[in-house]
Specification:
four-stranded antiparallel sheet, globular, alpha+beta, 305 residues
């Protein structure tokens, strides 16, 4: 069943009908829930977020554990994080999918090459598909290793903790992140997230740029699935059973709202590079997945609890 839904929404010819895709703005399949903890964080604005008390948070009637925060970012905040994801995260010591292909010299970064606008940039731009930070996910073994661990960006860890605490997860620690870069024809095959030691901790997924049809089913591939629109700035948190439900992204759609373009007179510290990042995001969806790898009280993977 999941594969049938995935194939349907992925199809280009014929094009699918999206009328059954859940839009939290006007769906009877979700219910709005209150913020569980209104934080007094002096860094809310500098993290690019609106006041926590104004957030719109939804739970899904038929998908236990799946939580949706409707774009809690300011427009300047979106620009800041889009630029950070393109300029700062695809560089060492973070690991990139393009590392194995020798496309960059030791003193080069993806951003520096791709903002030059020459023939090499044109070829390199679409090749970036993912970057990993903190505990680096091993795509072959599906496991983490203490030997493949670098520092998590402090601001991303702090923002993730704000999301977790607002939903009542006060012990969350951001220890690994995967940044996915989707082009307009990209997809993400159905899978479950089970690599972390602590499967009780929430998985926090933050999206910017173009719109995704996010598909989530049940614990087996035979279960039916729901499509959900995820737009720029939206945050999806997978907790409990939903973490082990099959999910994927069969389709990227052009965003019509351009919410990152509003309030242009308000700047954060990355806006001086926005003119470069803007050309990328017009054809890209960025998704940040932040995870807690260890159990509470565990210092590393070698320590047993």
């Amino acid at each position: 069943m999941f594969r049938d839904y995935f194939k349907y929404y992925k199809s280009r010819n014929p094009s699918p009908n999206f009328e059954n895709v859940i839009d939290v703005n006007n769906s009877t399949k979700v219910r709005q829930v209150p913020v569980k903890c209104v934080l007094k964080c002096s860094r809310i604005f500098t993290l690019g977020l609106t006041d926590v008390s104004s957030w719109k948070i939804y739970e899904f009637n038929d998908i236990p554990g799946l939580i949706f925060i409707k774009n809690p970012f300011t427009s300047a905040g979106q620009r800041h994080w889009i630029t950070t994801c393109l300029r700062d995260y695809p560089r060492k010591p973070n690991k990139l999918n393009i590392d194995a292909h020798g496309l960059l010299e030791d003193n080069e970064t993806w951003w520096d090459i791709c903002t030059r606008g020459d023939e090499r940039a044109v070829g390199l731009i679409p090749k970036l598909r993912w970057a990993t930070m903190g505990y680096h996910h091993n795509w072959d073994t599906k496991h983490y290793s203490e030997d493949l661990r670098t520092e998590m960006p402090g601001d991303l860890a702090e923002m993730s903790k704000v999301f977790a605490e607002a939903l009542g997860f006060r012990d969350f620690n951001a220890e690994a992140a995967i940044i996915n870069y989707y082009r307009m024809n990209s997809t993400l095959a159905g899978h479950t997230d089970h690599s972390e030691v602590d499967l009780h901790a929430p998985l926090i997924s933050i999206s910017f740029g173009q719109t995704a049809v996010f598909l989530i089913g049940g614990s087996t591939l035979e279960d039916p699935a729901n499509g959900i629109f995820i737009r720029s700035g939206d945050v999806v948190i997978m907790t409990g059973q939903s973490r082990l439900n099959y999910h994927g992204v069969p389709r990227i759609l052009a965003d019509q709202s351009l919410t990152w373009e509003l309030d242009k007179d308000i700047c954060l510290n990355s806006d001086h590079d926005w003119s470069k990042a803007k050309s990328f995001i017009n054809e890209t969806r960025i998704n940040i997945n932040v995870r807690q790898v260890l159990k509470p009280g565990q210092c590393n993977l070698r320590q047993s609890i």
